[in-house]
Automatic annotation (TrEMBL):
NCBIfam families noted in UniProt: maleylpyruvate isomerase family mycothiol-dependent enzyme
GO molecular function: isomerase activity; metal ion binding
Keyword terms: Isomerase, Pyruvate
Domain Mycothiol-dependent maleylpyruvate isomerase metal-binding: 13-112
Protein name per UniProt: Maleylpyruvate isomerase family mycothiol-dependent enzyme
Protein source organism: Actinomarinicola tropica
Pfam families: MDMPI_N
Superkingdom, natural source: Bacteria
InterPro entries: DinB/YfiT-like (IPR034660), Maleyloyr_isom (IPR017517), MDMPI_metal-binding (IPR024344)
Length: 237
């Protein structure tokens, strides 16, 4: 899996089309449902962020580096008076042009563009108690690759000992040197941990062997951790 090349524009489009098709069936009441994984945001706010980011990129209105919280808050605030269908219409209009930009970047396209859509799809579906797709598609597979190659990269410089990560079908050592502990989990859970969708308590409850989990927990996530437990919906059967 680590050698699999997945086009970011294809992953973004596949996820965008799936989630917007689903979201068009939501009621106005569902659109105002709070999203526990995103404190302060509703379902509509989450889509406002996704639509706003695509529109800003297409319009050339993006900051240098990674957009910060202020930039994201502006995207949501500018769409506060719009309905969810209007927000989805904007995303449908800007999305294809954003995907063209990603395609033109080729291997330099930011992988988190597709992963962000997948992550927020899980956030909003779970907020509404809706099942997750059986297969998260290419965006979820991109996240798998990001986790495989991202977790542990800087641990040696930080003095964090190596950790053996055991998944149902694969295992590897994150970090440098002999592993001082083992974490047994699955790809989905590890991805949600990395994206900051698990609280420290939830991370401590994972399958740890050897060592103190708090040795690694602060270094497993790029965002977060969540301030309260986040419970995701199960996959559809």
């Amino acid at each position: 899996m680590g050698n699999e090349r997945i086009a970011v524009d294809v992953a973004y489009r596949t996820t965008r089309e799936r989630v917007t098709s689903w979201a068009r069936g939501l009621t106005p009441e569902q659109a105002t449902t709070p999203v526990p994984a995103l404190p302060g945001w509703t379902v509509k706010d989450t889509f406002a962020h996704l639509a706003g980011l695509a529109a800003d990129v297409v319009g050339g209105n993006v900051p240098a580096g990674v957009p910060d919280d202020e930039f994201t808050a502006r995207e949501v605030a500018e769409r506060a008076d719009r309905s969810l269908p209007d927000v989805l219409d904007e995303w449908d209009a800007a999305g294809p042009r954003f995907e063209e930009i990603l395609a033109a970047l080729g291997d330099a396209a930011p992988k988190n563009a597709a992963v962000d859509v997948w992550s927020h799809e899980v956030d909003v579906r779970s907020a509404l108690g809706a099942p997750l797709p059986v297969d998260g598609g290419p965006a979820e597979r991109i996240l798998d690759v990001m986790v495989r190659h991202g977790v542990g990269r800087s641990w040696g410089d930080l003095g964090v000992p190596a950790l053996r990560i055991v998944l149902p079908d694969e295992e590897w050592v994150a970090g440098q040197g002999e592993p001082a502990g083992t974490l047994r989990t699955d790809r989905f859970e590890l991805g949600r941990v990395m994206l900051g969708r698990r609280s420290p308590q939830q991370m401590r409850a994972l399958g740890w062997d050897g060592g103190d989990p708090d040795t690694w927990i602060p270094h497993l996530h790029v965002f977060g951790p969540a301030s309260a437990d986040v419970v995701d919906s199960p996959r559809a059967t």
